[in-house]
Write a structure and sequence with these properties.
With 157 residues, this protein is α/β, with parallel strands linked by helices. It has helices at residues 32-41, 61-70, 91-101, 123-126, 142-148, and strands at 2-5, 48-51, 77-80, 109-113, 129-131. The chain starts with a strand and ends in a 9-residue tail after the last helix.
């Protein structure tokens, strides 16, 4: 499974009135609940995280893997949505462009994001979307469980 992952509004809150704590590496501290939700649903061997966040070019792939592992997310496959940041588009367009260039079907992807432009995705892709509240972030595995057709590793959420 290819999992498009945003960070602001998903792994950390995007409330402009609250600071986001930083880890020793200088990057955001992830919300522990978001980490638990993601860990409860991903297969660290089979799934690939595709960073669609605006922060995606801040680190290279090995550094990103280290960032995720230091925050308790063990993932072996990670890539970056490779569109330049100066490319003027929204998240919906970025993901649609990626899909048109890739050989993956919509059933092979999941999108976890807070970007409201994703509400305009075609219906078959919108069914693959976990749209988070930016002030809260990822806080439940129910949508992921439904989309992935998997039982959570932890049933507390």
């Amino acid at each position: 499974m290819k999992i498009f992952l945003d960070i602001d509004g998903v792994m950390v809150h995007a409330n402009p009135h609250r600071r986001v704590a930083l880890e020793e590496d200088g990057f955001y501290k992830f919300n522990p609940l978001a980490v638990e939700v993601l860990n409860s649903m991903i297969d660290e061997v089979e799934d690939e995280l595709i960073l669609s966040t605006s922060h995606r070019f801040r680190f290279d792939i090995p550094q990103w893997i280290a960032v995720f592992r230091s925050r308790g997310i063990a993932i072996n496959k990670l890539s970056i949505l490779n569109l330049p940041l100066e490319y003027k588009s929204n998240r919906k367009t970025e993901i649609l462009d990626w899909l048109s260039e890739s050989k993956f079907s919509p059933n092979e992807i999941v999108i976890i994001d807070d970007d409201k432009s994703l509400n305009e995705l075609p219906a078959h892709l919108k069914q693959r979307l976990v749209l988070t509240d930016p002030y809260i972030g990822l806080n439940s595995n129910s949508d992921l469980s439904r989309i992935l057709n998997r039982k959570p590793k932890n049933s507390f959420l």
